[in-house]
Amino acid sequence: DGSESSQRLLMFLAPLLSQSNSKLTIINVADTETDSQALFVEAREFLKPYNIEVSFHSTAGVFEPSYGILE
After folding, report:
1. Torsions phi, psi for 20 (to 5 deg)
2. Three-class HEC string of the chain
3. What is d(CA 20, CA 66) in angstroms, rounded to the nearest whole number?
4. pLDDT tens figures, 3-59
5. Cα separation of 36 and 41, whole Å?
6. CA distance 6 to 13
7. CA proximity to 2, closest of 46, 53, 36, 51
8. What does the pLDDT read at residue 10?
9. What's CA 41's distance to the chain center, in Å?
């Protein structure tokens, strides 16, 4: 969601995932697909030096974020 807490989590997880050769899936529920893509670009750039395999999934226009995540 681009919040400070989600950014801190990504900063914490990136080195751990890199060391363990783990994969990461980032899910975002936003008002528009454009909003999600902007966050994904930012996350992709941050993670690039860590060589982590990342997949991105987004849902747009969902009233309740938990429903979008479950999709």
Report:
1. -100, 5
2. CCCHHHHHHHHHHHHHHHHCCCEEEEEEEECCHHHHHHHHHHHHHHHHHHCCEEEEEEEECCCCHHHHHHC
3. 29
4. 899 999 999 999 999 999 999 999 888 888 888 899 999 999 999 999 999 999 888
5. 9
6. 10
7. 36
8. 95
9. 9
Work out the end-to-end distance of the chain between its first and last CA atoms, rounded to an integer number of angstroms.
Answer: 17
Q: Give the residue carrying structure tokens 């950014």.
A: 7
CA 60 from centre of chain: 14
Measured CA to CA, the distance from residue 29 to residue 57 in angstroms comes to 9
The token pair that represents 41 in the structure block? 């670009």
What would the two tokens of residue 33 be?
Answer: 């697909």
The structure tokens listed for 43 are 């996350």
pTM confidence score: 0.78
